[in-house]
Predict the 3D structure of the following.
Amino acid sequence: MKCNVSYKYLFIAIGILCPLFSACDYADGEGSGSENAVYMETPDNKGIVNFTLEPDGGITYLTPRLANISQSPVTIQVGYDKEALDKYNKDNGASYEPLPPSAFKLADAEGNELSASEGIRVPAGDFSAKIMVKVGQLNSKDFPANKKYAIPLSITGASNYSLIPSQRSAILLLNRSILSSVAKVSGGEGIRIKPVGMHTKAEWTIQMSAIYSSLTRSNLTTAYLSNGTGGEFYTRISSTAGIQVKNGRDGDDTWTQIPLQAGKWLHITYVHKDKKTTVYVNGKVQKVFENSAITFGENSMIVVGNSGYRNDYLREIRLWDKALTESEINDYLYLPMDPATPHLISYLPLSKEMETKDLKAPAGTENVTTKARIEYVENVKFPADELVIVNQE
C-alpha cells in the first residue's frame, strides 16, 4: 500500500512538470495549436534584453518561438506593453521610462516594417522567427542622457496557440553610448566629502568609477569613512586579491579574492545594511562581508582615494542613504545621475563643467576638499572597458 501511494504522487508530479519542460525547451517535437505554445526567447528566460545604442541609434533582434515545430504557418503578434515595464520597475526598484513607439520600428529579418496587427510569420516546419528592433538617433533634448529608457514588447496573440504568461514579454533596456569628461588625478590626500544628514541613517551605498594606472601600489585605497560612529570602513584594492573591506582587522578573508585589471574601468559599489557590506564591481557581486554596524556621525566624511593616486581616472562619486539593489546599481552603472534622484545624498560627477563640486551640497556651502592634482579629459566614451577618447574633428 505504501508503494502505491508513492507511485500516485510520482505520477502527479510528472503530470505537473512535463508541460513546463516542453514549454521551456526549444523545439523538441511537433505539435498542433491545442498542444503547442508560444513564448519570447530572452537570455536566461528572464525577459530582459540589454540593447546598446550608439549616438546614431542601433539595431537588435527578438526571437518569438514555438515550443514545438508547427506543420502549418503561425502568425505571432507583438505589441507595445507599457504595463510590462511598469511591473518590471516595481519589482526591481527601477525607474526606466518607456521609449515612445514613434522612436523605434519593428521589422522582419529582411527589414520589412511590421505593424502590431500584421505580426511576424513563422513558416510551416519551423519554430521561430526574428523581429528586428531599430532605434534611430535620440536627441538629448527630448531624451536626456541622465534618464533611462526601455522598450517593452509582449506577444499578444499567435493564431490559435496558447501563450506562456511568464515568458510572453521582453523588456529591452537601452544602454546609450555617451561622451563625458572625467578627472585625471595624481597625488594629494584623496577627495574628502562631508555629507549632510547621514548620521541618522542605518544603511548606505557608496559608488565610484575609476581606472587605475596600476594595481600593485601599496595601500592603494578606493574609499573610506573618516570619523564614523560605528565600526571601521576602510578599503584597499589590488590586482591579485581584489578589494579589501577592513572592519577592524586585516586577513585574507577581508579581501574579495577576485583579481582586477589595471587600465580598465572599474565601477565600484559598496552597499552596507544589517551589518553586512556587499562589494560590487561592474554591477556584479564580488563578496558579502559580515561586519559590525558602520554608521556616520555628524562630522563624518567619505574620503575617495589617498596620496597614492598616479595618473588615475575618476568619475561619478555617489553617496546614498539607502542600500541599492543590484538592479538599481546596474541601471545607472555609467550614466550621469539626475541630482534630484531620491535618496542621493552626495553626487560628484567629476566632469570638466562641475569639477569637484557636490551637486547635493546645501546652497552656499562647500563640502568637498582635496589636495590632489586634477585635470579633465574630454570626449570619453561610455560604455567602454578602457579609456576611449573620441576624436570630435
